[in-house]
Amino acid sequence: MVPDQQRPDESRPFSPEVEAALEAALLEPWSGGAPSVALHRALKAAAHDARQRLLRAEEMLVAFKTIEQRVSARRSGALAPSTDDRTRLIRALIDAYYKD
User: Fold this and answer.
1) What pTM was computed for the model?
2) Where are the domains positioned within the chain?
């Protein structure tokens, strides 16, 4: 029988360091188009962390959306990403999850 693999901390989908990096990068002014270098790095770190924590892709996306919504509530309307920008972020996160 194969032993069950346990997730590190089910109450926190991402490590505190990855969550902080995502929040900081998402708080930067949004310029549209491709994610900033900091945001791209944070998305890659989140995807790697999700795989290490044995999260399925959909669980990772829900965790990311929770963080993104929390950050968006703290931003002014002009700095918030558009729906198209959010789609790009999610696509970049999914790409990072499956590519590495």
Assistant:
1) 0.81
2) 16-27+35-99
Counting other chains too, the contacts that 13-21 makes at CB distance below 8 Å and 24 or more residues apart are 13/50, 13/53, 13/55, 13/59, 13/60, 13/62, 13/63, 14/46, 14/49, 14/50, 14/53, 14/63, 14/67, 15/49, 15/53, 17/45, 18/42, 18/45, 18/46, 18/49, 19/67, 21/45, 21/46
Report the C-alpha gap between 22 and 14 in whole angstroms.
10
Residue 47's φ and ψ, nearest 5 degrees, are: -65, -45
Q: What is the pLDDT of residues 4-31, one digit of tens each?
A: 455 445 567 899 999 999 999 988 876 6
Cα first-last separation, the chain: 29
Q: How far apart are CA 77 and CA 8, in angstroms?
A: 36
Instruction: Assess contact for 90 and 38: CB atoms under 8 A.
Output: no
Whole-angstrom Cα distance, residue 15 to residue 55? Answer: 12
